UniProtKB/TrEMBL annotation:
It comes from Actinoplanes digitatis. Its main location: membrane. Keywords: Membrane, Transmembrane, Transmembrane helix. It is found in: Membrane. This is Ca2+:H+ antiporter. The keyword Lyase does not apply. One of its GO terms (cellular component) is plasma membrane. It is a multi-pass membrane protein. Residues 36-188, 222-362 form the Sodium/calcium exchanger membrane region domain. One of its GO terms (molecular function) is potassium:proton antiporter activity. The keyword Cell inner membrane does not apply.
Amino acid sequence: MNAKIGSYLARWTAWIPVLAVVALILTWGRELPAPLVIISGTLLAGAVLAAVHHAEVVAHKVGEPFGSLVLAVAVTVIEVALIVTLMITGPEKSQALARDTVFAAVMITCNGILGLSLLVGAVRRRFAVFNPEGTGGALAAVATIATLGLVLPSFTTSRPGAQFSPAQLAFAAVASLALYLLFVLVQTHRHRDYFLPITTAGKVIEEEDHLEPPTGRAAMASLGFLLVALVAVVGLAKGVSPAIETGVLKAGWPPAVVGLVIALLVLLPETIAAVRAAARDRIQTSLNLALGSAMASIGLTIPAIAIAMIWLPGPLLLGLGGTQMVLLALTVVVGTLTVVPGRANVLQGGIHLSLLAVFLFLAASP
């Protein structure tokens, strides 16, 4: 047993996250020169790949849809911690940080991860097959929470600008968290079969047939290394953000692009895991990751920010602008048309990726 543990710890997926955290501790709060930015970026990429590996180990042990839930919640919790940290350290520049980060996460997950997964699955097997009941319910929950937290603040009249009053923010936080917890209950208990992967032949997959599940000790070790890797990903992303901000300003792009780049980095583990699942004909797992991450990003971020606003000064801007509302509405409509048939081809995947391209272009050139 000790030999097995020693062999496990000798793998790069174990020591890369630890090394990344060490680098994070040594560089935290410091202005990094170009060589350290390159080193941090390399360790960041390694931590992303390690996080994907450990998430897959945990997912294999607990089965679907719990495995997708583990990665989605882990990434979102640390993402929320990063947002709150940035709001504390720079409140004068962070009034719209939560809104921009959450909206970027929704567009990346619902168009980027979802579209790429459908495209990979359809290219390999002509059609990407999934369960419309589970996926449709997830999309409906995402649309509801996104509208409640990101659209309504632009239309309420209690406070000037795109912000909630304290009572409205508290209600939105409780409602978002309640909807998210209800979805988790449905996904993992009452209608778990709606979220199990389906092959193109219509076979429901309870677990991987060709691999033995890892031992409990190995799964717990992977869960620990997953959390370490995710902390390293978010922390190193924050460390290299000044260099990214400098590049963005030199390019003449809006400051919001910095948050977009960080969101892309933070969501890399889920993106890679979703594409790998799609390549193995596990499209439902990919969609669980995409929509589950979007839901967790909103359903956990808004309550956390609502609590943080008790001691944070300044207004909190949550309402989207007109262009962003159009993109969100179009994403929901196209997503609904994609989900209803329960199968998709390369066209649907390409449409979602084109919506992501529009979002990225307008973020750089509003």
